[in-house]
Amino acid sequence: MSFVAEQPIHRQLGLTDGENARIHELLEREPNHFELAVFSLLWSEHCGYKHSALLLKRLPSAGDRVLQGPGENAGVLDLGEGLAVTFKAESHNHPSAVEPFQGAATGVGGILRDIIAMGARPIALLDGLRFGAPDAHFSRAVGGIGAYGNSVGVPNVGGEVVFDDAYASNCLVNAMCVGLLPVDGVMSARADTAGAVLVLYGATTGRDGIGGASVLASQELGEEAADKRPSVQVGDPFTGKRLIEVSVELVERGLVLSLQDCGAAGLASSLSEMAADYGIDVHLDRVPQREAGMEPWEIMISESQERMVAIVAPERLAEVEAVIDRWELHRAEIGEVTETGELRALWHGAEVGAFPARFLTEDCPRYVVECEPRAASSEVELPELPETADVLLDLLGSDALRSRAFVTRRYDQLVQSRTVRRPGLDAAVVRLRPSTRGLALTLDGTGRLGSLDPFVGGASAILEAARNVACAGGEPLGFTDCLNFGNPEKPEIGWELSQSIEGMAQACEALGLPIVSGNVSLYNDTDGRSIPPTPVVGCVGLVADVRQIPGEWREGDVIVLASAGAPALPGSELQARYGTVSGSPPQLDLNAEASLVRLVVDLAPQCTLAHDVSDGGLAVALAEAALHSGLGARLDLPTDAVVLFGEGPGQVILALPADEARAVRSVPGVDVRRIGEVGGDEILGVSLADLRAVWEREL
User: Fold this and answer.
1) pLDDT tens digit sequence for 531-543
2) Alpha-carbon dihedral angle through residues 177, 181, 186, 191, given to the nearest 10 degrees
3) Is 46 annotated as catalytic?
């Protein structure tokens, strides 16, 4: 007869023996269960970035336009003319794997609150979805995104959808939000005024989401994943809409000193960040609750959605309460800012936990990941391929590459009346009313490429995002990232993470642009199987005049191909569909890649169309351009599969009037050559009608 010894409480909470010992050392005593629960959440991978924080220091984050870099809820860039843009990407992968509708919906809600916490009004959403197939699970996630975004009145203008068996058991749901604010209106989450009052407003607090940051986001998934559904938060977009309006008004009227979202780890996380420089006393019994009998620790770490914490000067409290009441949100004065440096939790006047706030943040463990490089695989030769026309039809009609209209039509793209360029080709564009300036927005990532070479995968994610913004007429200004990787305690995953970040850093340095915000999602493993290294990158670019962005090519236009290198088959869609993903992708000339981006930015106002060559290679990109424009092209291209379907270094298709095209020249590192002219109803021997039939097919 045998028995299994009960795990110590710290292990049940996800803390290692070493971390538990460190907590005892910091406190110089044994923590009570309330304190241990708070430490377990703030020292989780999701909140503490234990295995990535040291690596992330490699990413450049400074620049002339940077008003706020990493460290707050979102990054902020100066757009000139007194206006600033704030943006960030976040992940909600494990919740979406367990409960796709609510997991994806609350991912949208969470990223919206990050933006309003900066004092901004959200103006655009983008999402990056990676699933095994367009199945019911995927459809429910799309439904959650649409239900939340459509209800709160923020347009969903872009992103990407990837279908790959590698994500079948661990989907990725990444969300990006963009907001606008005055340059002098940037909010901070940190408390800086002793005696100020803490006001919690929004929804009531329940038991939904308890342990989400540690139970879901910081552990691998397995057969028991369904049992974790209680850890998935439940969203209420209509309360979320009211939360936006209240927060914007409070900031615009100067009624709050700081704002903070209640996201992962709930009040424990938000208050520890707010208290980092001063101190906070929180009275948990004052928190509005929607469930009876909640314990203090449950209230402290609940991840119930649609809640914000404001720090308010006592003399402005009545005005703040009046704004909240007008929008019929719950509110409570739950604490005050002190000068003790401690986060103290009280329950009916009795102290239930207390510790210096920096123990939860600055003193969170930081681990140096072990790295074990993976040997490059030998390229497996492709079998004999069908005719070019058949390959093009097959690729363009595949789940991997066909039109994403069946997804984007479920999102409101036009609410707020800013959208100039809808989802579809490269980046979206929204107008900065009342001027004619605009923002080009995109969210792109790599996966398969990174599985062959994570450095190239990381660099390519940055470069593709920059090219997409340039193709929409925008000058790239900066990036946000969402780094999706497997278990960092595996040396091969540690190497992938390290190499991807290095590739991203070097690409940013070549472009001279910063990464101002982001998110890391690790432990994307199911039953020991890791996802491919998947860095996802959001980019924001400034459009000088939204009336001059590239649109559709026209009859008689000259088609030019600008290239920063020669394509290859390793990691391409062609190789994945017809052979074995293998080999080494071509190394990138980062200076040439940066020159290509600058060239496209300069030429975009003259172009009738500009389109980045990515998944599927040149042939697929030409077909997409033709379908977008409703016109074919007469092309002078070889039938070589590598030229037509290879991927890798940056390539951009440019269409210009003949007189404009004559002036276009190659620049150092970038080859520019004429490949045809617009006309007819075919691309590479395939009619547009046949291409459209496979590209727009219904499920």
Assistant:
1) 999 999 999 999 9
2) -70
3) yes
